[in-house]
Design a protein that fits this description.
371 residues; alpha/beta; eight-stranded mixed beta sheet; 9 helices; binds flavin-adenine dinucleotide
Length: 371
Amino acid sequence: MNLSYWEIKSWLTNVDYTIVGSGIVGLNCALHLKLRYPKANVLILEKGILPQGASTKNAGFACFGSLSEIIDDLENHTEDEVLRLIEKRYNGLELLRETLGDKAIDYKKWGGFELFTEQDDDLYDKCLKHQEKINKLLHPFFKTDVFSWQSNNCVFNNIKSKISFNRFEGQIDTGKMMATLLQKVQIAGVRILNNCLVNSYSEDLDSVKIKTEHFEYSTSKLIITTNGFASELIGQSIKPARAQVLITKPIDELHIKGTFHLDRGYYYFRNIDNRILLGGGRHLDFKGEETTEFGETQMIQSKLEELLQTIILPNEIFEIDHRWSGIMGIGEQKKAIVKQLGNNLYCGVRLGGMGVAIGSLIGKELAHLIE
Ligand SMILES: Cc1cc2nc3c(=O)[nH]c(=O)nc-3n(C[C@H](O)[C@H](O)[C@H](O)COP(=O)(O)OP(=O)(O)OC[C@H]3O[C@@H](n4cnc5c(N)ncnc54)[C@H](O)[C@@H]3O)c2cc1C
């Protein structure tokens, strides 16, 4: 594209910080760079007309781990690592709420529930057995018991009589959160160019040359926050992981309120606007879902519908309104990568299924890593 003198001068000259990706991490990084360096010229390049990864696609759980997730994490990490991650997720949520305000993101502290199917005796017994130990582990941070048991009250079908309850869990309206964050970043003076795919870059001694699909220019620092798409631009161990979702049409007198985890978190659902939003099923086809292509598959979508019919809404007549997918970035370790990769090159990626919780904090951490 042959840009004008004005376009080059006003948009692409003297750029101090270029951020690739306008997800929750990129936007928070931009916000904190502006707080640190108010006069800096911060530019975000985003390939989608809207953010096009996970931040506008997710389920909006403001969560830091269900009972079975924490038990599972303890099998692969030390107690200290697990506790640090929970603290990070909780503090990240506090930062998100503080940055944008509960009203703007429609934060509701309705609690989180974990359901166990009648067939899943092993997991149910394990959770019954370990709840006290987990509450003790979390006590120094929360100063009270996090998990308790509630009765199913026959709301759900084929589910054990006891349901694990986490009173610290909440939910947000993902769309409101991202719209408010985008607005705040733009008010802070950050420029965002949408529909602008970054193809490649090359590092000079004190700058980085960027090649987008439309133009080339130089920036003092380049920050990659492309999460599930990161391996296309940086050599870090990040795999894409597609996650599929569906939402019902509004249901009269919907009796379900809160965020729900089922089958070790492989499925998750919540209420929103008198509807049920349900996602998951990636474990049915891990290999097929390891992709950066958006899309829905028959196998996973029919399983989600079956769960609605048989477990979640067994006595309701409902219709599916809409289906979509998002792309996450995952790896061997359940830990984000926040680091300097070159003289003027940085990244904040691999947020897994925790980005609503830790995204604000990772963005802030990244901004403070950069000189
Ligand atoms: C269906 C689903 C449900 C989820 N539910 C939850 C939940 O309930 N709670 C929770 O905590 N987390 C959840 N997550 C995870 C959470 O959404 C992510 O961890 C978080 O959004 C990651 O934010 P990010 O900024 O790192 O990445 P993203 O939001 O993916 O942003 C990366 C951006 O980079 C852009 N980009 C990529 N490559 C390029 C390029 N070459 N040039 C320009 N732009 C580029 C993309 O378009 C994208 O906008 C869920 C994720 C999905 C998909």
